[in-house]
# Entry
Amino acid sequence: MTQLTGHSASLDFSQPEPVDMSSGKYVKLWQGPQHPGITGNMSLELTLDGDEIIECKTHVGYLHRAFEKLMEGRNYIQNFTVVCRIAVPEPAFNEYLYAEGLEQLSGIEAPERAQWIRTLNLEMMRLASFMMWIGGQSGAFGLYTVPNWTIAYRDYVLDLFEEMTGGRIYHMYMVPGGVRFDLPKDFDKRVKEVMDGAEKLLDQVERVMYNNVVFKARSKGLGIITPEMVDPYGIVGPNARASGIKRDLRKDEPYLVYDQLDFDIISGTGADAYERAYLRLQETRQCISLIRQCMDRMPRSGPLQAEMPNVLHWKIPPGETYVKAECTRGEYGYFMVTDGTEYIRRVFVRGPSYTHAIAVMEKLAVGTNIADIAGLMVSLHTYPPEIER
Amino acid sequence: MNLKDLLSPFYVWQRAFEKPYTSMRPIEERPGSPSYRGFHINVADTCVGCGCCHTICQNDAIDMVPVEKYSGNKGDSGLRPRFDYGRCCWCALCVDMCTAGSLRLSNEYIWTSREPADFMFVAGVEEKHWQDNELGYRREKSYHLYPPRRIEMEMLSPDESIEGFDEVVKGYDVEQAKKEADRCIECGMCVATCPAHMDVPDYIKSIRDGDYDEGLRLMYRTNPFPATCGRICTRRCESVCPVGLQGDSIAIRWLKRHIVDQVDAKDYARILNDNIEENGKQVAVIGAGPGGLSAAYYLRKKGYEVSVYEAQDKAGGMLRYGVPGYRLPDSGLDKDINYIVSLGVEIRNNTRIGTDISFESLLNDYDAVFLSTGLSVPSSMRINGEDHPRVLSGLQVLADAASGRDPGIGNKVAVIGGGNVAMDASRVSRRLGADVTILYRRRISDMPADIEEIHEAQEEACTIVTQAIPVEIMDAPDEKQVIIKWGEAEMVQDPKGGRPRPVLQEDRMHEDTYDCIISAIGQGSNLDYLSKEVQEQLAIEWGRFTPGEYQHTSLEKVFVGGDVANRTADAISAIEDGHHAARGIDRFLRPEMYTELDQEIS
Amino acid sequence: MNTIDEILDYAIDQEQQAADFYTSLAGRAEKAGMKEVLLEFAEEEKRHKERLLAVKTGEHELTPEQEVLDLKISDYLVEVDESDDISYQDALIIAMKRERAAYELYSDMAEKVPESQLKEVLAGLAKEEAKHKLFFESEYDDRVLVDN
# Structure
C-alpha cells in the first residue's frame, strides 16, 4: 500500500524530465476516447513502464460544442434550454445557476415556493448523479452487479423527474424567474416510495460493495489527495472533503433554502479512492434526508414564477455576477456578463471537472497501475462536457 | 482482511428473488408521464398563426407555412407552424410562448417512419396518431413569458369627466409606455389588419428604445394623423392582437398617442424632414377631413400643389365636428393638421363646391380632383311624427357642441341608435347636463359603437335600453317636450344565418316623454354638388362611390376616397384611401415615374 | 277568381306588374346608383313570377304550413311618395310595403274561402309574399338600420 508521502513532490509544478521513447523501454497507450473505462468523451495518453504509469496527459476536444459562444447569440430565455446540456448527468445545476445569475443581474426574485422546489430538484439531481457514480466506481473495479442495481434505481429517480419536470434528463424546468409548473398530484407519495427503496438499496450496496474485499484492496491507498494539494490544485467537493477539508457551499454560503435544512458537512481523512467512495455513499444518504426535508417543509401553495418581462426582447442592464452552487463534485460556478442588450455578453462556466480531470488526474495517475486508471478516474468524479463548454 | 469482507459479495443473492426492474413490454407498459414533453399538438382552429413559436424556437425547428383553410380569415395570418423533428429539442418554449394557447405537447414519444420527410409536419393539420392524446405538457395558466395584462390607462373619473369637455384619457407617461411597449410580441398581425398598414411593431419598438423621433417618422410614412388616430382610431389592430387572446391586447392606440405626446410640434419639421421638390402640377381636394388631408399630405410630399376645399369654417371634417373634444381635443387634431398645412397645403375653408365654385370648374382648373366628402346627412327613421321640432339629429348636436353653440336639448333626452355617433351624442348630452336614455333595437353586443365608448357612456350614467324599437313620435302636452312610442323586441335567429334580428312585440309598447329625441341611426352621403351628368359617369352604389384599384373613377382625373367611398367609414380607412389616391394620382399624372417592374411589385 | 288556375294567373300577373313598376321607377330615378337598384328589384320580382309559373305547371309546390319570420319593420314606417326622387331607403320601404299588401290580400282571401284546395293555394301564396317581405326587410335591417 502506498504511504501518505510525497507532499512536497505533489506540489512540485516543475516540468518533469521528458520520457525517452526511443529507448524502447516505454509504451504509449491511449485510454479513450472510446473506452468503457473513461467517464465520457475524453482520453488519457498514458506512458507506461511495464504496467506502471509514468506519465499521463489528458486530452479533450471530442465534445466541444462551444456552449459559451452559442449562448452569446441566443436571447436569455432561449439559453435556458442550452445550459442543461453542459453536464449531461447533472443538468439541473446548470439550469439553476443560469436562472439564478439572470435573476441577480435583472433584479428578479424567484418566489419562495419556487426556491424550495429548486432545492428539491437539485437534491434529487444529486441523488441520481451519485447513484450513477456508485455504479461507475463499482464497475471500474470489476464489480458488475452493483451498477445494475444503482443505475436502475437512478432510473426511478429519473421517473420522478419526468413527472416533476416533463423530461427525464434535460428537465428544462428551472426557468429564469422560478420553476415552470407545480409538483404533480401525489408527488410526495411517490417520492417517499423511491426514497425508502433507495435507502434500502444503499444498505445493500454498502454491504456488497464497500465491504467487498476486492473493492477495499483496490481502492484503498489509490489516488491520495493530500490536504496540501487541495488549494493549489483548486480541488473541491467530495474530493476535498475526503482529505479533511470541510468545504461545502451549501453550508459556507447558503443559497436557495439550504439554511432552513438540517444537515452537516460530511468529511473524511483517508484521502484515497476508498475514502472518497465512502464519503459519497454517506452524502447519498444525506441527499435522501434533504429530499425528505424539502418535501415536508416546503410551503404547500404560493406562486411559482416571478413576474417576467416579455422574454422576446428582454434586455438586462450592464453588469456581471458570479453565481455558484455545490454540485455532486463541488463548487460549480457561472460567471456572467451582461451589456444592456438582449444577448448575454459572456458566460464562463467553471465546472469542477476542469481541474479534477486534467491537473489532478495527470498528477495522481503517475505511479499507479494501468489496471487502476479507470477506477482512479471515476473516483475523481469528472464529466468531460463541463471541461469543454 | 476479515471473513465478513470476504463473504460480502455473496449478499447479492438477497436481491435475486426481487421483481426485475426491466419492463418486458415498454411500449404498452411505459407511457410518458402526464406532463411529459412529447410530440406537438396544435389546435389549428384556435391557432392564429402569430408565429411566436417560430420566433422563440432556438433551434429553428419551427417554420410558419401557409395552410389554405385558414387564409383570409380576420386576425389570422393563414400560416400554421410546421415542426422539424430533426431539429426540435422538445424544450416546449413554443408552448410557453403560444399566444392563442393552442399549442401543447402530448406525452407520446414513439413514432417510426421509413420516410425522413415525414418528420417535418404541420401539427393539427396533418393527422398524427397522438392528436387525440389529452396528456402531456401544457403551459400553466398563471405562467407567462410576456406580461398578459395591459398597463392601466389613467382616466378622469366619470364624475369629473361629465363636468366638461376635458379629455378623458390622460395618456401614458414614459415609464408606463415603455412597460406597455414591452408586451408587444412583434407578430405583425396589426400591420396586416390596419387599413393603412401602419408599421406598428416598429413604432412600438421605438418607444422601448426611447427613440421618439424614429417613432414619429415611422408613423408618418403611412398616417399623417397620428395624434388623432392615437385617440380615436377604431383600432382594428387591437382586436386582432394575439396578446389579447389570453390577456389584454397591446394598447396600440395609446402607444401611438404617446409618441406624438413626446414630440413637440416645433420639432416635426426637423424630424420628418419632408423635402418637397415641386413638380408643377395641381390637384384639388374636396373635403378637409382625414381622407382629403391625407391625400393632400402625400400629394404635397410628391411635389404637387394642393388646394383643399372645405365647406365648414375649419378643417378636420367629422374629426372636428363629429368627434367630441373629450375624446379628441382640438389641440390634438390641430397638431396633425398644422403640420400638413406647414408643408404648403392650401385649405380654403367656407367654400362649398356646387354653390361657391362649380365642380366642373375644378375639373378644368386642376390636373386631378380628389373627392372625400364623407357622410354628412343623418338617416331618418321614417316613422310617424319624425318631423317633430323636438327631434334632433345626433350629428347636429355634435356639430353644435364642437362649435360652442347650444344645441338646446333640454334636461331629459332619448338618444336613438347604437353607433359611435349615438354614444358621442349621449355623452355630450350628459356634459350639457341632461339625463340620457339610449334606445337601441338590438343588444349591447350588437352595437357597432366601440366597446370602450359604450362602457364609458354607461359609467357616465347614460341608461341604455336595449331591444327597444321606436314606432311613433307624438306631441306632448307641453310643446317643449315630445313623446316617443316604442315597443320591446325579441331577438330572433335569422333563418338565413345572419345576425339575430329584432322582432317587435306589439303587446309590449311604451310611451315616454322627453325634452328632445336625438336620432343617431346612421348617416348617408350628400352628392348634390355633382351634376346629374357627373353622377351618372361615376359608379355609385347605395349612395357611395365604388372606386377602382387606385381610388380612381370612370371619370378621368377624378379620384375618390373616405367614408363616401368605402364601407368601413372610419378615420383610418379614409386616411389610407387618401394615401392610396395620392399614389394613384401620381401614377396617373406622372406615369413616366413608374417602371414596368414597379407596377408589378405594387 | 274561383279556380286555382285563375288565382295563380292573378298572382303571376301581380308579380309582372311589380316588375313593370320598378322598371318604370328606374326610368325616372335621378339619384346616383338608384337605377341599378330598382332594376335589380324588378329582376327579383321576375324571379318571384318564375316561381309561381313553376307552381302552375306543378314543378314547384307551395308551402302553406311553413313558418315565415315577420320582422314587422314595414308596419310602422311612413308611406313614401313614389313621385319624388327616391333614395335607396325609399325604394326598400316601397318594396316592403308592396309585399306586405300582397301578403295581407292573400291571407284575407284564404280566410274567407271554405276549407278546400283553393284555400291551401291562397295560404301558400300568402307565405310566398311573406318570404318576399322578409327578403326586403332583412335588406333594410342590414343596410339601413346599421347603427340602429
Summary: Residues 67-386 of chain A form a domain with the Cytochrome-c3 Hydrogenase; chain B fold (CATH 1.10.645.10). DSSP finds 14 helices and six strands in chain A.
